[in-house]
């Protein structure tokens, strides 16, 4: 079972909670146990699992990535000027593999799945695949 999802981002850098969208799809597929693989289809946007309860975690997360990978660096050679976005995506990762148990994602109390935009705003896509087991 595969599905391509669309997400519209509104800021240059942001983390968008996609947990409920994924869990709704899992329920629609009537899957009780298995794996879910979620993958960004972009080189400047990633997928991560992190805290979703306190919005300051996302703010701090993005701020620290900006400190490590500043938007402009005098040695960057990439013509589009978004080298930092590529580096952030490689650091966060483009995909996550998650466990499905009893029809839900097996996440901790504060965890959620986030689409990470690093070069927006844009219309983006991510793909999900359920592997039943």
Quick synopsis:
With 133 residues, the protein is an alpha+beta fold. It contains 3 helices and 8 strands, in the order E-E-H-E-E-H-H-E-E-E-E.
Descriptive account of the structure:
The protein is elongated and about 50 Å long. The strands form 2 sheets. A 5-stranded antiparallel sheet has the order 1-8-3-5-6, covered by helices on one side. The protein has a 3-stranded antiparallel sheet with strand order 2-7-4. It is built from 3 helices and 8 strands; from the N terminus they run E-E-H-E-E-H-H-E-E-E-E. It is 26% helix and 38% strand. The protein is an alpha+beta fold. It has helices spanning 19-28, 55-68, 83-92, and strands at 2-8, 14-17, 34-40, 45-51, 95-101, 104-105, 111-117, 123-132.
Structural class: alpha+beta
Helix run count? 3
Strand-residue proportion: 35-45%
Q: Spatial order of the strands in the main sheet?
A: 1-8-3-5-6
Secondary-structure element order, N to C = EEHEEHHEEEE
Strand elements, count: 8
Tell me about the largest β-sheet: 5 strands, antiparallel
* Proportion in helices: 25-40%
Identify low-pLDDT runs. Answer: none
Could you say which overall geometry the principal axes of the C-alpha atoms support? elongated
Highlighted features:
single chain; alpha+beta; 3 helices
Chain-wise SSE layout:
Elements: E1 2-8, E2 14-17, H1 19-28, E3 34-40, E4 45-51, H2 55-68, H3 83-92, E5 95-101, E6 104-105, E7 111-117, E8 123-132
Antiparallel strand pairs: 1-8, 2-7, 3-5, 3-8, 4-7, 5-6
């Amino acid at each position: 079972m595969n599905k391509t999802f669309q997400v519209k981002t509104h800021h240059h850098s942001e983390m968008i909670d996609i947990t409920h969208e994924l869990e709704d799809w899992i329920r629609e597929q009537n899957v009780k146990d298995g794996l879910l693989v979620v993958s960004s289809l972009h080189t400047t946007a990633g997928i991560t699992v992190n805290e979703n309860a306190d919005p300051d975690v996302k703010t701090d997360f993005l701020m620290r990535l900006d400190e490590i990978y500043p938007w402009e660096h005098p040695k960057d050679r990439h013509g589009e000027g978004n080298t930092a976005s590529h580096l952030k995506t490689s650091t966060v990762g483009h995909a996550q593999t998650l466990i499905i148990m009893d029809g839900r994602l097996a996440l901790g109390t504060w965890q959620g799945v986030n689409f990470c935009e690093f070069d927006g705003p844009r219309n983006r896509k991510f793909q999900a695949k359920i592997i039943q087991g």
